[in-house]
Amino acid sequence: MVAGQNEFKKIMGDDYVVNVLLPQLYAEIDNEVAIDARTRVAKMMVMRILLVFVFGPGAEQYANMLVPLNDELFRVVDINNRIEFFLPPIAKPVSWVYYRLFQKGLVAKKHKAYEEILSQRGIRYNLKNEWSLSDMVQEYERNGEINHHQALQIYEECFFGGQDTTAGAVEGILKMIVENPKVLVKVQQEMDEVLGEGEQFRLTDVERLPYFQALIKEGLRLHRAIPVLNPHCAHEDSTLGGYDIPKDTLVTVNIWGLARDPEAFPDPYEVKPERFLGVDTNYSGTDGKYIVFGLGQRICPGQSVALFMVNMLIGSLCQRYKLALAKDWKHERDAGTFFKEVALHLNLMRRVDSHEIAG
Q1: Which residues bind heme (predicted)?
Q2: 198's torsion region: left (phi>0), alpha (psi -120 to 50) or beta?
């Protein structure tokens, strides 16, 4: 399994995304004046990368099938979340009915899609040279540690928990960049100086690009995937900030509010990647101020994959294009749990000819 994980690092860390998935994206958007960045870049590319992560190289071809199913399921869950928030006395029975009528059927459709991918690729009980998550899951299933339904649910957790959250962060950071063009100029200058002309941005370059790292941290501060953490339960009576919190109280951490606390982040609504330069800030959440993926034992298990996708997509787009808001795009609100504005539309202009960038 260690050898398989090393193969996976090769696939996810560099070659497959740079040599296959990014050129596929460039071929789709290079000649377009304006694009729907939410669907064409954020959702579709995140889904393609997740498909490679879960099922291996070549599985990205199923993104066109899974993105609409994921969108439909999120709409159903979003409505259910509103019922639970605004009508708590009747939330449990209504949610049960809602699940039976809508959500269960959509999950079944997605499970059927996973079965098709497994069948078409011939990887069920048949390990390939290219390691993927499904190899490990199939091994657990073959050994009797999990059943087949549980295996399908593991795949579902990856796509339901990983796609829209990461895509929302990618879209939010892109919006932040185009609304602050000086930030984009600084990132591109750093890339040009450090990478030089003709060198394609890779994941291993991130550690050489401190301003880019700061940009991603600032972007995830302002555009994190979710505004609050999952509820926790107080194990004993306690007092916090002058408030008495009885034992067994459900406590929700408002990480959206923490990210905008002026004591932790002066001028919190200003975009200032510089605030993270020369500061030892990581994604563990242990400092109690900068919490993106949760913390402790319940920290997001997909953190490393999410950061990989955010870094690769934002870095590659910044290196390749001059980015600007499409002229007809309006800052309109579209209420929902994950996306609060209408889909971001961008104008793209190539910075570097494709022949000048190494593959």
Answers
A1: 300
A2: left
Phi first, then psi, for residue 108 (nearest 5°) are -60, -40
- 102: exposed, middle or buried (Cβ count in 10 Å: 0-12, 13-18, 19+): middle
**Taking the chain, what is the end-to-end CA distance rounded to the nearest angstrom?**
29
At residue 124, the pLDDT reads: 46
For residue 235, tell me if it sits in a domain. Answer: no
Would you say 318 is a known binding-site residue?
Answer: no
- What percent of the residues of the chain are helix, what percent strand, and what percent coil, each to the nearest 5? 60, 5, 35
**Structural domain total, the chain:** 1
In this structure, is residue 240 part of a structural domain?
Answer: no
Q: Residue 251 falls within a domain, yes or no?
A: no
Handedness of CA 49, 53, 168, 17 (dihedral sign): negative
CA-to-CA distance for 120 and 51, rounded, in angstroms?
A: 14
Q: Containing H/E element for 281?
A: none
Confidence at 140, pLDDT banded by 50, 70, 90 = very high
Look at residue 357 in the predicted model and tell me its pLDDT.
53
Write out the residue range of the structural domain in which residue 331 sits.
2-224+259-356
Given the structure tokens 């498909």, which residue do they identify?
A: 51
Residue 348 host element (H or E): strand 345-350
Inform me whether the pLDDT recorded for 98 exceeds 80.
no
* CATH number of the domain that residue 36 is part of: 1.10.630.10
Rg (CA), the chain: 21
What pLDDT, on a 0 to 100 scale, did the predictor assign at position 230?
79
Contacts of 324 (CB under 8 A, 6+ apart): 178, 181, 346, 347, 349
Helix axis angle for 210-222 and 181-195, nearest 10°, is 150
Write down the mean pLDDT value for the chain: 85
